[in-house]
Amino acid sequence: MGKLVLYGLEPSPPVRACKLTLHALGLQYEYKLINLLAGEQRSKEYLAKNPQHTVPMLEDDGNCIWDSHAIIAYLVRKYCKHDELYPREYYKRAVVDQRLHFESGVLFQGCIRNIAEPLFYRNETEVPRSRIDAIYAAYDFLEAFLGTQNYLCGPKLTVADFSVVSSVSSLQGLAPLEQARHPQLSAWLERMEQLPDYAANNGNGAQMLIDMFSAKITKIV
Ligand SMILES: N[C@@H](CCC(=O)N[C@@H](CS)C(=O)NCC(=O)O)C(=O)O
User: Fold this and answer.
1) How far is the CA of 113 from the centre of ligand 1 (A)?
2) What whole-number distance in Å separates Cα of residue 45 and Cα of residue 217?
3) Cβ partners under 8 Å of residue 11, min gap 6
4) Which of 140, 155, 191, 220 is the most exposed place for a label (fewest CB within 10 A)?
5) Is 53 near ligand 1, meaning CB less than 6 Å away?
6) What is the rounded distance in angstroms from the CA atom of residue 67 to the CA atom of residue 81?
7) What is the CATH number of domain 90-220?
8) pLDDT, tens digit, for every residue of 132-177?
9) Which of 9, 54, 65 has most ligand 1 atoms within 8 Å of CB, for mutation?
10) Is 12 a catalytic residue?
11) In the chain, where are the structural domains located?
């Protein structure tokens, strides 16, 4: 097995999705901190590895992969002896892929990045109410995806749960889950919080992002 290096920082949800996956697979890795607010992702060295200048990035024996969804799928395919976390069966895998794309487009880009970018990169301090409404609308979809099942793709944990929990946990300051409107999703989040070493791999970083949001936001308008 080659040497694995994960580049990232704790508040980043997709970095934490990778940490949850690496932990579930029992993989050792080196963690290299990239300070986004200091612009380290745009250094010549980093851009040479990842021209899109995003974290997370995984380096596996010199091969660089970015986008958390590509990373977590790669890790399971390459390093997992069983296929539960990312099933090989076509339909089961399609369901996991759908949840991963939902996380990428709707939860991360549509909810988190749409709020974070104006605050952290353009120094804005007010958040339009419509962006908070969009978070609750995304929760409605997740509630439907879950139905009566324990995990997002059925009775078993998959990488989709790791990806989605990285966003949903980070949104709890901006849009706390309401038990009455989202009973299944609330129970799912509590279930995810019971995972071994959850705090180290996701909970603490999610709280950091929640604190960063609340330090910056003066008003929802
Ligand atoms: N879809 C990507 C999102 C990656 C992303 O946008 N990461 C943010 C941090 S959470 C970032 O690197 N921002 C710095 C930049 O874009 O320059 C993934 O899942 O990895």
Assistant:
1) 8
2) 33
3) 170, 205, 208, 209, 212
4) 155
5) yes
6) 23
7) 1.20.1050.10
8) 999 999 999 999 999 999 999 999 999 999 999 999 999 999 999 9
9) 54
10) yes
11) 4-79, 90-220
